[in-house]
Design goal:
The complex is a heterotrimer of chains A (137), B (369) and C (366). Chain B is built from eleven helices and eight strands. Chain B is an alpha/beta fold. Chain B has an eight-stranded parallel sheet with strand order 1-2-3-4-5-6-7-8. In chain B, helix 4 runs parallel beside helix 5. With 366 residues, chain C is α/β, with parallel strands linked by helices. An eight-stranded parallel sheet of chain C has the order 1-2-3-4-5-6-7-8. Classes of the chains: A mainly beta (137), B alpha/beta (369), C alpha/beta (366).
């Protein structure tokens, strides 16, 4: 695992997302109210680009007709067939044990620490003044 | 809230090396109804703006069962300049035709006026949509071929429209929707089938439509997923009718392409038809062969939405029973249940099977070199 | 091919009401009078035209009257040749087709009382389904409560095409009552003809009508699953009768695929439709809507289809007597492995109809 600087934090504001490529892997990075999440940008079903999916809540029902809505914004629906993935873990709703997309840890690091390393920042020019989004790959 | 930062979709460098495919089901959309105005008489332009499009369904616009995604489309298929998914040819080329190496794309326009209650309005809309397919699509991209949309509940008007375009290379099939007012084998539709056969064009029957009957024979279901699943039953009923009411027996040159209804149900239906026919033969002396033989000789299926058994290998049995020469790959672009040619058929098959499935079967049935 | 399987349980036979007159003793006085005063005709459903070859196998067709109306013949033709130990009677008299819910309730009651007296009392091998008037859910439940006291009633009978899809909450009290009493819900081919028998209208030929039953079963299975009937009534067993079964794998592939993308619309469905069917739904054997098993290719194909079912617990032995689905004693398709045959003949029916074990223990079967 190595840590890759993929964007300036202000480039992915809350509610925003960005598709980045790290070590050849396309990764969709999401900012959910200040917390960042990364998912391999490929639906395990037919390869839909998850970065283009809509974020919804988790809808469950203990009994028919009783709707329980939770985790607003934490469920990513594939833009194609609507399969749902937990943005935190990459697990699918329909078959969580077997069907998942890879989740990558993402965090924000201060420019100062990023400059000091050990980070990989192939495509981003880094300054000490900025905060950066860092993906573990 | 979904703030989106769209990265440019880079051209896929592998696209050129991918095998050329046919796509048996592409849905072109219009940016607005004004695109049809050059071919719509003032009366029908006013009708569109006035009373509007009345189908056998409850809402002024929008479907009876709300779809799962806007316009039932892939969320990534909205053109960068806006508008309905499927309305922008350059974007369709960039997102679908080029990267997927589509060599032959069959256009099946929905919202083309088919099923409108007012029969004259229906015929006028269909005629305009046919002109529009040439002007906006087939003349702009030679990979694309159109479908003659017809006012199928009014056979004489449909026949006139077919004859108008017969021999025109922009069109490769006659298109109906599956949810007809009467079962498709009913003799009120026969002139359409004869005209299609006479023009040497396959009849494409695309799932959906506005027949006014519940999508189940036990009443209206509650959910969109039931309606979507139900199109397969609906198409089974339509095919049953075509076979048993003798359409293929009477019109031996007719080719039928079932579009967007799935295909894995076909073997079971054919077995059931044969078994029932054998017992009840006396009722249908116009059938000189077993129902399954008519199906084997006259019917093709587009593949989307591909059934996805687990294990996937079960599909090999199913396709074997149908015939590898009978399936036409389709994506349903830009709709949400799109099948991607790179992933839709994760099976070990021979080169010939793959070639037929993805390209040659379509070329053969549509007579495209 | 001769076939007898001692202990086999036939899950779908059709004793016939010989005529409306036969029900008169079981009707209240005012209904009896209505029948006479109004000159009521038979309530025989057009789902089985009396003289259609499918309705009565030629060698099972009596010179007069409907096939299946005579117990002696039924013993000789449906029970004895297969060494059947128990058989479930599904009376298809067209009670469900009426529009008056009161009349339907009266006739349902009459049919059930007639069934108990004329059939169940006269042969210990016979069990029956409770005919209910789905025109009124309340009255249907009343009839279930009334008949459930008799443990020889093992199932509640519904037709596959009614006014509304069977998964609708409207019908749930019926399922609650069935689950409460350990009754299976049997959904049988046939229609109330309150909707066109196909989703595209009324076909010209009876052949289409009959083929179309399979599509109706597909739709009803969709409805039961999507509406969450099995979430609400997890112990409920549904048996699809005279449904065919080769359509099931393809249908489940499609439904399960859609469920993965559309399950937010029906969030109570928290497992794949394929899994729900395996735990809660069963199908009767006849008509075998598969390839003819007279050739090796046909036998292999049928085995492939059975493999696609991915469970050996789904199929229930049935003759569908007196309907013409097979000749001679060839009720089982050729080439089935012995373990599967045992499951189909005995184990699966016993697991599907919990009341069979009850009654079998109490009343020794001859």
């Amino acid at each position: 695992m190595s840590r890759h600087v993929v964007a300036a934090a202000r480039d992915i504001p809350p509610g925003g997302r960005k598709l980045v490529t790290v070590r050849g892997r396309p990764i969709a990075v999401f900012n959910l109210g200040g917390a960042y999440y990364g998912l391999l940008n490929r639906c395990p079903h037919q390869g839909g680009s998850l970065c283009e999916g809509v974020l919804t809540g988790l809808l469950q029902a203990p009994r028919p007709g009783e709707y329980v809505y939770s985790r607003k914004g934490e469920i990513l629906r594939c833009p194609w067939h609507g399969w749902e993935f937990d943005i935190r873990t990459g697990q699918s709703y329909c078959d969580p044990e077997r069907i998942r997309t890879r989740a990558y840890p993402v965090e924000v690091a201060a420019g100062q620490t990023v400059v000091e390393g050990p980070y990989v920042a192939e495509t981003i020019a880094v300054t000490v003044e900025e905060d950066y989004v860092v993906v573990d790959v | 809230m979904n703030v989106q930062i769209r990265d440019i979709q880079a051209a896929d460098p592998a696209a050129g090396s991918r095998m050329a495919i046919a796509d048996g089901d592409i849905h072109p959309a219009r940016k607005s109804d004004r695109e049809l105005f050059p071919w719509l008489a003032k009366r029908w332009q006013d009708e569109l703006a006035g009373i509007g499009q009345r189908y056998r369904q409850p809402y002024q616009s929008g479907p009876a069962y709300p779809k799962s995604q806007p316009n039932a489309a892939r969320r990534d298929a909205v053109p960068p300049g806006g508008g309905k998914p499927g309305c922008d040819l350059p974007f369709m080329q960039r997102q679908h035709l080029d990267p997927n190496n589509v060599a032959l794309g069959i256009l099946n326009p929905l919202g083309a006026g088919q099923g409108l209650q007012n029969p004259d309005f229906c015929a006028a809309m269909c005629a305009a949509v046919n002109e529009w397919q040439i002007a906006h699509w087939t003349s702009q991209d030679s990979r694309l071929k159109g479908s003659i949309v017809v006012s199928y509940e009014d056979a004489p008007a449909a026949v006139a429209e077919i004859r108008k375009w017969a021999g025109n290379p922009n069109f490769v099939q006659v298109m109906m929707l599956s949810r007809t007012g009467e079962p498709m084998g009913n003799r009120r539709y026969w002139p359409i089938y004869e005209a299609a056969a006479e023009a040497g064009l396959p009849l494409g029957v695309h799932a959906f439509g506005y027949g006014g009957h519940p999508i189940t024979s036990g009443g209206y279901p509650t959910y969109y997923i039931e309606e979507m699943t139900g199109h397969a039953q609906c198409c089974q009923s339509g095919l049953t009718s075509l076979v048993i009411e003798g359409v293929f027996a009477r019109t031996p040159a007719l080719k039928l392409v079932m579009i967007e209804a799935g295909f894995a149900w076909a073997p079971s239906l054919a077995w059931r038809l044969d078994k029932t026919w054998k017992t009840l033969k006396q009722e249908t002396p116009h059938l000189t062969r077993a129902p399954s033989e008519y199906i084997r000789d006259h019917v093709w299926w587009t593949t989307q939405p591909m059934e996805e058994p687990e294990p996937r290998e079960h599909l090999l049995d199913t396709i074997g029973w149908i015939g590898w020469d009978r399936l036409i790959f389709a994506t349903d672009y830009p709709h949400w249940d799109f099948d991607d040619p790179a992933t839709a058929l994760p099976l070990r098959i021979s080169k010939e099977q793959r070639q037929g499935f993805f390209l040659d079967n379509a070329k053969r049935v549509y007579g495209v070199a | 091919m001769s076939f007898a399987y001692p202990g086999g349980i036939d899950c779908d036979i059709h004793p016939a009401v010989p005529s409306l007159q036969a029900l008169l003793p079981y009707l209240d006085e005012h209904w009896r009078e209505q029948v006479a005063v109004r000159g009521m005709d038979e309530l025989a459903s057009i789902a089985y035209p009396a003289n259609s070859p499918l309705t009565a196998r030629p060698d099972w067709k009596p010179a007069k009257g409907p096939a299946g109306a005579d117990l002696v013949r039924l013993r000789r033709e449906a029970l004895d040749p297969f060494a059947t130990s128990l058989a479930i009677c599904n009376c298809l008299y067209g009670v469900q087709l009426l529009f008056s819910e009161d009349m339907a309730a009266a006739f349902a009651r009459a049919v059930n009382d007639w069934m108990a007296k004329e059939w169940l009392d006269r042969d210990p091998r016979l069990r029956a389904s409770i005919v209910v008037p789905p025109q009124s859910v309340e009255r249907a439940v009343d009839e279930i409560e009334r008949c459930a006291k008799d443990s020889r009633f093992v199932q509640v009978l519904l037709l596959v095409m009614g006014d509304q899809p069977l998964g609708k909450r409207h019908y749930w009290p019926i399922y609650a009552a069935a689950e409460r009493h350990g009754l299976t819900i049997g959904i049988h081919a046939g229609s109330a003809y309150h909707n066109p028998p196909t989703p595209v209208g009324w076909p010209s030929y009876y052949t289409e009508d009959y083929v179309g039953q399979a599509q109706a079963f597909q739709s009803q299975l969709t409805s039961l699953i999507c509406e969450g009937v099995f979430n609400r009534y997890p112990n409920l067993k549904v048996a699809l009768l005279e449904s065919g079964f080769t359509w099931l794998p393809a249908h489940l592939w499609r439904l399960t695929k859609y469920w993965r993308g559309l399950r937010m619309e029906i969030p109570w469905v928290d497992r794949a439709p394929t899994d729900i069917v395996r735990s809660n739904v069963r199908l009767s054997l006849q008509p075998v809507d598969g390839p003819p098993t007279s050739t090796k290719e046909g036998r292999d194909s049928l085995l492939r289809i059975i493999d696609h079912l991915q469970s050996d617990e789904l199929l229930l032995f049935s003759t569908d007597y007196p309907h013409w689905q097979f000749d001679g004693n060839a009720v089982l398709p050729e080439g089935l492995p012995p373990d599967l045959i045992r499951k189909i003949m005995i184990d699966n029916p016993l697991a599907t109809y919990s009341r069979l074990a009850l009654t079998a223990a109490k009343e020794p079967v001859r």
